[in-house]
Design goal:
The complex is a heterodimer of chains A (430) and B (99). With 430 residues, chain A is mainly alpha-helical. Chain A contains 21 helices and no strands. With 99 residues, chain B is of the alpha+beta class. Chain B has a 4-stranded mixed β-sheet with strand order 1-4-3-2, with helices on one face. The chains are: A mainly alpha (430), B alpha+beta (99).
């Protein structure tokens, strides 16, 4: 039985990968978007199927047969001469190698504290279908059993495929998210190679970024999803609202912060979409397939979130306390300048190249705004709460903000500037 | 041909080589939760840096999942936690020695 699960999991992942590559090419989506979705599709879909098999006590082997149905619509493309797979720029392989080296130096077995105490602990419970609901035992309230289970289910589905619980699986899953973030950011700089390399060097030297991506927390997955959402809203390929809906639904299946993404996207679309009804229809039709299992989990299995349960009448007092506003502002600036100095440095470095603020900046701005509002009313000790979570929350928007920075800058001027600097340093003339 | 090697094959070989060295090391190496599991299985005192009893309990719960543990922090010792498995009441005692 285990061999069948292994076989079906890997066949599904390969089929979904190829299927999404073909689909992306047929619909003229940006290559880097198609490639990223193709890599994510297999783990996300097998993880979702695995969680559905647990929620409804369904046979996982049968559910794994569903993606095989993709073969039938795909047959007609087997001899299609117009289908060409566009692989990433080969130079990017060097960045991948350095990126892998850096990641492997920082990551550790079972990940950081939250990785083993929350995400990998949940994955261990999910691995055992007969006793997975033990994760809701009152003794385990500290492990946040209300958190969505897509990421642990992805890890557990790979553990099923590999026939046991192995520490390398969550590490590899995290590494994929990290490499995809690098890939998307490098690709959007094309054809201005020097800008892409500058950005990659900045990210590979960014200790805070590397620490967070290698910790095996769910935050890097959210950061990748937000990067793709902002990318869709900026590039506007076909059905971009539908795809934004899908990505938001994945986000809220990964972490509760996904609901903040949903709120921010709804406000953004309400403000800027001329044809609001069709945009919302498209967005919500993308949202529905994955939001149903996420809501089912919340309503049927998950206990109440600690931040919601801990609320009391003192919320009003908290909102009126200037002390809390001051500390949130101070801590935010402190986090920005001590943990996200790479971003600050990039902004300073690139300030002279016609940077413009466009409407897409509102999405990460709203998300950070809502996060800061949650701090305002948190039932936990404010300073403790901020010190344990703020850098991770900023990490959610970090790649998306870098993407917007690249998109809103005069890349030709930056590229020429960097090339001239390089030539003057090496003693060559233009 | 030389360009193909330096731009594509060489980094690809390096990636495969790096993973081939790292994976066996990662699979066989040990981290804090692994040492907690070893200490539980061998009934030995755990010698670890920067570990407190709460962290030890969380790690014991992680390594023994899907078993659910019920633990107490006894007052007669600041280095020991006493746990039992909720399913069958099996007792587990863990002692840490901070270095």
């Amino acid at each position: 039985m285990s061999v069948l699960v292994t076989l079906l999991t890997f066949v599904d992942i390969i089929l979904l990968f190829l299927g999404f590559l073909i689909w992306g090419q047929k619909n003229y989506y940006p290559v880097y978007f198609t490639n990223t979705i193709a890599v994510l599709a297999g783990p996300v879909i097998t993880g979702t199927l695995y969680s559905l098999s647990l929620f409804f006590s369904l046979d996982y082997e049968w559910l794994l047969c569903l993606p095989l149905l993709m073969i039938f619509p795909g047959i007609k493309y087997f001899n299609d001469k117009n289908i060409r797979f566009t692989f990433p720029d080969y130079r990017f392989l060097w960045i991948v190698w350095v990126g892998i080296l850096v990641f492997l130096l920082f990551t550790e077995r079972w990940g950081g504290w939250d990785a083993w105490a929350i995400w990998n602990l949940h994955a261990k419970f999910l691995f055992y279908p007969e006793s997975w609901t033990s994760m809701f035992h009152p003794n385990l309230a500290w492990s946040h059993p209300d958190y969505p289970v897509l990421l642990p289910a992805m890890v557990a589905s790979f553990w099923k495929a590999f026939g046991g619980i192995h520490a390398f699986v969550p590490a590899m899953v995290s590494m994929i998210f990290y490499l995809l973030i690098l890939y998307v950011l490098y690709s959007v700089c094309k054809p201005y190679e020097s800008v892409g390399i500058l950005l990659m060097v900045a990210l590979l030297l960014d200790v805070n970024f590397i620490n967070l991506v290698s910790s095996q927390y769910a935050d890097s997955f959210l950061a990748l999803l937000l990067l793709l959402i902002v990318l869709l809203q900026t590039e506007k390929p076909a059905n971009f609202h539908f795809w934004s809906g899908i990505l938001v639904s994945v986000a809220l299946s990964v972490k509760n912060e996904g609901y903040v993404f949903l709120l921010a996207m709804s406000i953004y679309m309400f403000l800027y979409e001329k044809n609001r009804i069709s945009a919302f229809m498209s967005f919500f039709s993308g949202l529905i397939p994955l939001v149903i299992p996420a809501l089912y989990f919340k309503l049927v299995f998950a206990p109440t979130n600690d931040l919601v349960e801990g609320q009391s009448v003192s919320v009003f007092d908290k909102l009126l306390s200037p002390y809390r506003y001051f500390h949130i502002l101070r801590f935010s600036l402190e986090t920005l300048f001590t943990k996200y100095y790479t971003f600050v440095l990039l902004v300073i470095l690139l300030r002279k190249f016609n940077t413009s603020i466009k409407k897409e900046w509102l999405i990460p701005a709203l998300i950070i705004g809502f996060y800061l509002c949650i701090y305002l009313i948190t039932p936990r000790d404010l300073l403790w709460h901020m010190s344990t979570s703020m850098k991770r929350l900023f990490h959610h928007v970090y790649p998306a903000v870098l993407f917007l920075l690249i998109k809103n800058i005069d890349l030709v001027a930056v590229n020429d500037f960097l090339k001239n600097k390089y030539l003057s340093l090496t003693g060559n003339k233009t | 041909m030389k360009n193909l090697f330096t731009s594509f094959l060489f980094p690809l070989i390096l990636i495969v080589f790096t993973m081939a060295i790292w994976l066996p090391w990662f699979v066989t190496s040990e981290n804090e939760p692994d040492r907690v599991l070893k200490a539980i299985q061998s009934d030995k005192t755990l010698v670890q840096q920067d570990t407190n009893r709460e962290k030890l309990y969380y790690q014991a719960q992680f390594v023994l999942a899907p078993e659910v543990l019920s633990c107490t922090l006894p007052k007669d010792s600041s280095h020991r936690i006493d746990c039992e498995k909720v399913s069958d009441g099996q007792k587990i005692s863990l002692t840490i020695l901070n270095q």
